[in-house]
Structure formats: C-alpha cells, structure tokens
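User: Modeling request: complex.
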Amino acid sequence: AQTVTQSQPEMSVQEAETVTLSCTYDTSESDYYLFWYKQPPSRQMILVIRQEAYKQQNATENRFSVNFQKAAKSFSLKISDSQLGDAAMYFCAYRRASNTGNQFYFGTGTSLTVIP
Amino acid sequence: DSGVTQTPKHLITATGQRVTLRCSPRSGDLSVYWYQQSLDQGLQFLIQYYNGEERAKGNILERFSAQQFPDLHSELNLSSLELGDSALYFCASSATSGGWYQETQYFGPGTRLLVL
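Assistant: Request completed. Predicted assembly structure:
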C-alpha cells in the first residue's frame, strides 16, 4: 500500500524568507503523480503544484517549487518569498497512474505559520 | 472557486441518525471522489465513482454508502452515525477515471458533520 509521510507537523518562516516542507512516500510503482495541496483556515483544498514521476525536471509554479528525488522517494516543497497568505496546512499527496482507481493518498500535513 | 459544489456546508445530528451529503462535480467531470478528514488528520479516501459506476473503494465503513446519478452528481449516505463520524467530508472531481493522464482532482468546500 502507498504511504505518504510528512515528518514536520509544524513549521514557521519569516515573511519574505524561504521555507521547505518535506514529504516522503513509499511505493513499488514506477509511474505515479505527486501533488501539494494547501488548506487555509477556510478548509478549502487548493492545488499548489504537481509533479509527474516520469519527468526529471522539477515542477515550478511562481514562488512554489519542488525538489523531486525519485530514487529517495522524496518530494519537498519550497516556498520562496513567503507571504502572510501562505499560512495554511500543506498536504502532500500521491496518486497512482492506473485505471483501477486513482485516489489520492495524503500525508498528515504540515502546518505553516508565517511570521510578519 | 474549484467548480465543485457540496451541500450542506454544515450538518449537526445525533448518534444513530442517517444523513445524506451531496456533491456536484465540475462541469464535464465524470469522476467523483469522497474523502473524510477527521480533526487534525489528513484526508482519507472513501470511494470513487466514474460515470455512474463504482471505480475504487477505500476505507469506507459498511454504514456508509454512495452513488452517482445520471446527471453525475453524487450522494454519500452515512447511517447509524457515531460520535467518531464527526469530520469534514470532501468531494473531489476529475475529468476522467484517471489512469495515465496527468490529472488533478478539484475539491469542493466540504461538509462539516458534527454528531452529538
């Protein structure tokens, strides 16, 4: 079974600084997708960034980028120039590349505090 | 706004009761997923429907059931409710059943269920 581990329950960062959130996963499959979702106090789940396992290049979305290490099964999220609006719970998620069900497996989340 | 709607937003009921949660996917999306998020927990996958048929099943209790209707909206039925069923229930949708497509799930705002 796939498992996703986020070992940092809480993180904090100064406004305008950079922070990295860690995520590791366990799988025996070679093709899959990885995602980071943000959950602000409103509890809405908002897609931040996604990565295809077959792509070597790390995904980037504006101030958000990932460090994908397939051999190490690691998928960390880097937030640059942190803003107050980045404060939220961040969830790492794994999805199989298969037609037999493609549900997400989520980690337990990292609560990010941004300090003004 | 993800385009996924869920009703009701909040639901308070008593133990032993039955409730129905409703989800309308984004226009054109054929797959609907249900997730449960208990307090301070990650999201747990419950069940997936694709174009009216069950596609994948996760950690869904026998007291829970779901269906997807011809107009593609979905309902999650929770019966014989227990205190531990109190949680945030998310619905998500995607265009297809997933598979080999780099496909994202878009989440609704959730239904907060409180069982007293």
